[in-house]
Amino acid sequence: MELTPTAPKVRQVLAFLLVRCGKLVQVGELIDELWGDEPPASAMTTLQTYIYKLRKDVLERCTSATLHTRVSGYLLDVSAERGDLLRFERLAHEGRTALDEGDAARAADRLCEALALWRGPALADVSAGEILSAHVTRLEEERLRTMELRITADLELGRHRQLISELKMLVSEHPLNERFHSHLMMALHRSGRRYEALEVYQGLRRMLIDELGMEPSAAVQQLHLNLLNSDAESRDEGAPAPVVRSRFETLLVPAQLPPDTSDFVGREEVLRDVRRHLVRPQGENTAARAVSISGMPGVGKTALALRAGHADRAEFPDGQLYADLRGTGDRPTDPYEVLEGFARAIGVPAAEIPDNLQERSKLFRTWSMGRRVLVVLDDAHSVSQVAPLLPAAPNCAVLITTQRGLYSLPGVRHVELDVMSTKNAMALIEAVSGRRFTADELGAAERVARLAGRLPLAVRAVGSRLAAMQTWPVEKLAAQLESLPRRLDLLSFAELDVRARLASGYRRLDPGDRSALRLISLLPPPDFTATTAARLIGNGTDEVEAQLIRLAGCHLLSVSMGGGGEIRYRLHELVRVFARERLDEELLEPARERPEAAATAAAADHARAVREGVRPAREGVRPVWESVGDRPDSGYEHRDPRVVRAAVPEPPARRTRPVNGVVKALGNG
Prior knowledge:
The protein has about 675 residues and is an alpha/beta fold. The chain is built from 29 helices and 13 strands.
């Protein structure tokens, strides 16, 4: 039964929903597709009419598709066995996998079945707008790539004579497609027609030089040289086909991933998300798949990346590469050095490794083309550091961990990692310590998890401490964490050091942002606004908000939306503790030792008045917690005279604005 709508716009809406089936299509995207840059005033109403017609005329009579209305758009669910696009992508993926596994016969069957679903050009009977046209291009590219793979499988099965006519037609239709030319050269060569194969190369070379002013790719040139040097003039039909190998095919298969964490706990949902993106069907993209995992220091980014990498290692049989980019260190790793390590790992002789970054990057991309390789880039600093290290092949995948979100890197799935749940944090303490908490110990264990901020690095540190001191009651550890002035001392064990990890990111901040972080650590939890912080720091709200955004970009702050659309900022508890330490060690202790005169004395008077509950002498002056609009919860720490003293770490002539800011915060503002 024919259900395709006849109205062009309704047909266009249906096509858009189908190419994005299983995904939310925003209303704005539909309007842009239907009317471009000049939508009518009635665009929303008209679109709703098209959706109504689509439901009534098509979907009510179709049992294999369901259209869901969401707050911001529509989502079309189509049965995997009834949707041509879904079946094509699944079959193409199965064929590609079979080819990678060396099963050419199965690959050819699956790829032929996938191509048989095509009955003409993509969306041939649809008036495509700008967005749909991009999808048409993607689908046609995927069709050609699937055809290339099917021909590769047929060549491996010895069907070279059968392919010659088809390949000549494809070369005529796609004169700039080097892969089709390569396949034709191989088919002719294996059929005993090497002279014709060499003529195909010469014709391709002349056309590329005339049309584009460039030579054929290195792979095609290498194939040409191999054919020139080959003694094999012909092969029998159906005989096993020898593969003309590139310079890379005899090299090593790297397996560089560090060991997985055996006591990995939780993260099930985010792990599924990462793995789903790494191994998604290739029909969705023509570039390498990439996932960027970001989060605050010690949140477990590397552990998650390694768990995902090891879980999907079988998906990347051509190798797994790993590099520590040291992005939070004082000297991030140069990608030039990383590429040298990659080249050595795959067996490239030292004399053949290029001596500049661009050529090394090209060499790596050339090697990875046609392979299934996983690249893990740990602790990345910037997009410019990562970009040369990315493979270009769609069969490859990249996992990136970074404290800063690399949001300008195109085509990347961004995953922000948060702290653990209390339940998982307690389970991790048990796993690391080797203990099983009794019912009487569960309350203390929960306090330990909470005081460790549910931060995996801190949780591991306390778990290791309990493992080293098996006789220590968990209640005692909880009591010490609650009472110790320097809590981070207990959250450090051997190489597990929360303070050191936070300090590495802190050192990379510019001085103004470090100063802001120190001061906002004195604001009462749980959160605050930019206006509150500005009154404390003494700068304009816009300037301070820019600082807060930079701190949030480094995952030293989190951002949420409060009531009435107000943006609120929150310090993780351990970041707050660390920032208080830096305030003490960098500013307050040195300030107490200097004989600063008037400014210090005035600050001390204010501090004393606040601490003793005496109203300051100047009329109208209010305590800091009243001025900034946040009420203290525990008393002392929010009346802390450090708010005042922090303003005068340097002589007043050199540092006046913070003094003014704290005076504003203490007074009427």
